[in-house]
TrEMBL record:
InterPro entries: GlpE_sulfurtransferase, Rhodanese-like_dom, Rhodanese-like_dom_sf. It comes from the Bacteria. Residues 19-106 form the Rhodanese domain. Residues 96-115 are annotated as: Disordered. Gene3D superfamilies: Rhodanese-like domain (3.40.250.10). The lineage of its organism: Bacteria, Bacillati, Actinomycetota, Actinomycetes, Micrococcales. This is Rhodanese domain-containing protein. Pfam families: Rhodanese.
Length: 115
């Protein structure tokens, strides 16, 4: 199975209010977006690298997957679900996470932002 080319509206999802601030989240954004800021404890695997790095995806049941707004992560969720993983798309992505007042940090722990 390959990663779908378009956003997938009918994938399992989770609201950011249901995800702990320090939960493990899979972030599929590009490197520059990650560098600007991400959720604490997130794992970074850019969408295009996901098939080759499948063994690095956390196996937590109900793992939240995020991008900036939810489109790329919906594609990742469709792909990972097809691989037998129990994952959910983070509604609103990192933009929604930041707007909800959830923490966004850089790799060195300093405050970050969603670009």
């Amino acid at each position: 199975m390959t990663i779908p080319a378009n956003p997938q509206p009918n994938v399992p999802s989770v609201d950011n209010s249901e995800v702990a601030d320090d939960a493990v989240i899979l972030d599929v954004r590009n490197q520059d977006e990650w560098d600007a800021g991400h959720a604490p404890g997130a794992v970074h695997i850019p969408l295009g690298e996901l098939p080759d790095r499948l063994d690095e995806v956390p196996t937590d049941a109900g793992l939240a997957v995020t991008c900036r707004g939810g489109g790329r992560s919906s594609r990742a969720v469709a792909f990972l679900t097809g691989q037998g993983r129990e994952v959910r798309n983070l509604v609103g992505g990192m933009s929604g996470w930041e707007q909800a007042g959830k923490p966004v940090v850089t790799d060195d722990g300093a405050p970050g932002s969603v670009s």
